[in-house]
Design a protein that fits this description.
With 328 residues, the chain is α+β, with helices and mostly antiparallel strands. 23% of the residues lie in helices and 36% in strands. The protein has a 9-stranded antiparallel sheet with strand order 6-2-3-4-18-17-16-10-14, with helices on both faces. The longest helix is centred in the first third of the chain and has 16 residues.
Length: 328
């Protein structure tokens, strides 16, 4: 892959952009993987982790204008002005926190390619360059990255971002898992993973969120009852049948039996997803089982109005977590 001279990216992060990346977006993505595909576009910036990066599908999207000063923003490429690079989240976050800790007045970001002595044969290496300054010092930091993605990979990652952002909700209904309940839920999951790698998740139209795990010949189940339930169009579901307790777990979704949906996932994936959601401080967490029971869908929400799936998920950044069902 030759670094294309038509591939150009530069911009100045605004104060809100630095805060979003440093306090929310990057730390949340760190909980599900050490690396991510950074998809840069003129209207949207996205961090994408597919099954190869984290074992599940994670998308964090921010409008470009909320991160960068659009008067100085530049992004051009042969792939419809989209640029995609794989980057270490740890290194990027450390660089941003360094700028914040020194009271940087502005942070300029750009994509560079220059020879490095450490590279084989001193070959040119693609870099993300961060330049910042305050009243007394001016600092340049270079973050080595993997080669910018080839055209096919850029289109694949962009396709994931578009699909997850624009598609209709993939679940028949969603249980609003109160963010205040995340701590006890995570406590249960921490206990479960001491004896099981898998956990069954059951949702009911009556608003129950159930966890079921097996330990030898025994079965352990916990029910968190009476959450609000929403249809896929965002309307509040009224009434509905409530199950007496968790089912046996381990099955693939049954969408027709008394309003019950269930599937089995890896405990580690569910813990990572919930801890990631927790960092973003949502007002709601919509949780559903996909119609084909292939994954558990988590959507953090940051305002009370849930009508409008594509545009209402967040005021600043939107997140989408898809935890895959285990394969028998």
């Amino acid at each position: 892959f030759a670094f294309s001279q038509t591939m150009k990216f530069s911009g100045t992060l605004v104060e809100l952009g630095v805060q979003l990346l440093e306090r929310s977006v990057i730390p949340a993505c760190q909980k599900t993987g050490r690396k991510a595909c950074l998809l840069i576009g003129r209207e949207t910036i996205a961090f994408v982790q597919d099954e190869n990066e984290s074992g599940m599908l994670v998308l964090a999207r921010v409008k470009t204008g909320q991160l960068f000063d659009m008067q100085s923003f530049l992004c051009t490429s042969r792939t419809d002005n989209w640029i995609c690079i794989r980057i270490s989240l740890d290194v990027l976050l450390k660089a941003l926190r360094s700028a914040g800790a020194h009271g940087a007045e502005r942070v300029d970001v750009s994509l560079k390619c220059r020879p490095l002595k450490a590279a084989p044969g001193g070959a040119p290496v693609p870099l993300i360059e961060l330049r910042w300054r305050n009243d007394t010092i001016s600092i340049e930091q270079e973050i080595p990255i993997e080669k910018p993605c080839v055209v096919a990979e850029v289109r694949r990652i962009h396709g994931i971002s578009v699909k997850l952002s624009a598609e209709s909700p993939p679940c028949d209904f969603y249980v609003d898992l109160d963010p205040m309940e995340l701590k006890p839920v995570l406590g249960i999951l921490d206990s479960v993973r001491s004896f099981s790698k898998r956990v069954g998740v059951s949702l009911t139209r009556g608003g129950d969120f159930c966890l079921v795990a097996h330990a030898g010949m025994s079965q352990v189940g916990v029910k968190f009852p009476m959450f609000n339930v929403y249809n896929k169009d965002g309307s509040r579901m009224m009434g509905g049948a409530t199950q007496d307790g968790p089912s046996s777990g381990g099955g693939r979704g049954d969408h027709g039996h008394a309003g019950l949906c269930e599937l089995e996932v890896q405990v580690s994936h569910l813990v990572q997803a919930f801890k990631s959601v927790q960092i973003t401080s949502p007002t709601m967490i919509l949780c559903g089982v996909s119609d084909d029971a292939d994954f558990l869908h988590l959507i953090p929400w940051y305002k009370k109005d849930v009508a409008g799936y594509a545009e209402g998920a967040a005021t600043a950044a939107s997140f989408d977590f898809r935890v895959p069902a285990t394969c028998d």
